[in-house]
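Lab notebook, bench 4. Still working through the backlog of constructs that have no structural model yet. Next entry is a single chain of 213 residues. Request: give me the structure tokens for it.
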Amino acid sequence: MRNRFDIQLENLNNDMIAMGALCENAISSAVKGLLTYNVDIAREAIAVEKEIDQKERDIEALCLKLLLQQQPVARDLRLISAALKMITDMERIGDQAADIAEIVTFADLSRSTSSIHIAEMADAAIKMVTDSINAFVARDIQLAEAVIAYDDVVDNLFTQIKKDIVSLIASDTVTGEAAIDVLMIAKYLERIGDHAVNIAEWVEFSITGTHKG
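Model written out:
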């Protein structure tokens, strides 16, 4: 019975990795579409978001099956409970990547992104998502703590982007409407970082039994 349970836990790990990879793909596609002014690439994020939703349902079903059929011990119960919380944040990450893509599909931002730090912010957000999932799979509390600390990098980039936008408006190289669109995109990336922090905090809970959030 335990051997079967361990196999199902391994399946859970694999599904979490797969969902994390989908989140990374969604963010990457949305931002690449933004930076290359390619609506088709941006739309890939919207398609991936639907895959993320399905993966969330699959993982939720597996977790409930483990809870109902296997009667897990305390450590395993924490792990499964944490996974259920984490996939909610991962689903929201997919939503926010799709929201970025939606902006790219209707806004002309070709003059608004060349001199700001959107690409760096996206890379930082993706790193946080990747590391938070890896921390869960590896049961690595130090990596989870590093994700939480790294949120300062994303927050500082958001502050820098706001300054970039003010400079663009002052130099009359961007319209107010485009500035708002870029600021919204940066805000979505900041929220993605916040969700990665939430994931890392649930990783800590799965290991220690204490939730700091």
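Notes after review: Helices lie at 2-36, 39-70, 74-106, 118-138, 141-170, 176-208. The radius of gyration is 19 Å. Flag for follow-up if needed.
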